[in-house]
Amino acid sequence: MPELMDGAYLFGIAAAVLSWVLGRRSETRWRIPLWGCALIGAAAAIAGPPVFAVVQQAWRASPFLPDVTPGMAFIGLWAGLAALTLFERKGQPRRVPIWAGLLVAIVAAFGVPPLIDRASGSYQEASLRTDVNRCTTGMLGEVQPRRVTNVCDFPITVGLCMPGELNPAPCLQSVTLAPGATASFDPGEARVSYAPGNRDGLTVVACRPPNRPSRRLGVHGKSHDGVCLPKA
């Protein structure tokens, strides 16, 4: 069985529900059985995240287009699906046109995450950007990272987040590196955060500018994870 990427279950559930809803409409000449919806969901869980990553990379290559995260896409998808199904009645003409459902999806994708962030006081999952830790050497796997090099062909911002620094504040020790450039950090006496013995240790993370390095408490509450905040 192939390894599933982050967000795979969300893609799978959304695809399965969407195929079930569309397949049960009265004017549809074909019906999708439950096992067929499950297969569609499984295929979406496997193929959805990598395809989205490719689309996201191509989207990001256009500087005039806003950044879209998997969480934003998921919120927009469910909002659009709700708009296109909740107000419909079996055997009656469609009440909400397709273009209106798409508009609701776009508004929800870009409008709901900032509202959640404002209500919670910190950047939540849908607003966090993808890290580029793969672009670094000398950072990952080190107990006390002190030097880091950018091995990618684009600039990155690397942050050494010390104990006490948390989302929504960016890491104080942050530096933007050109391709091939190297930077030095001062971890002091702090060691990297890990579970379960050193939950409040330091954290390192690399982001694409203008995204900003920060950190948050992990899902299980046993260590901190580096995250990339959107530009202020």
What are the salient characteristics of this protein?
single chain, 232 residues, alpha+beta, 16% strand
Report on the structure:
The chain is an alpha+beta fold and 232 residues long. It has 4 helices and 8 strands. It has a 3-stranded antiparallel beta sheet with strand order 1-2-5, with no helix packed on it. Strand 7 (212-217) and strand 8 form a beta hairpin. The longest helix has 27 residues, at 34-60. It starts with 7 loop residues before the first helix and ends with a strand.
Blueprint of the fold:
Elements: H1 8-23, H2 34-60, H3 70-85, H4 98-120, E1 136-137, E2 147-150, E3 156-161, E4 173-177, E5 182-184, E6 203-207, E7 212-217, E8 224-229
Antiparallel strand pairs: 1-2, 2-5, 3-4, 3-6, 7-8
Helix pairs in contact: 1-2, 1-3, 3-4
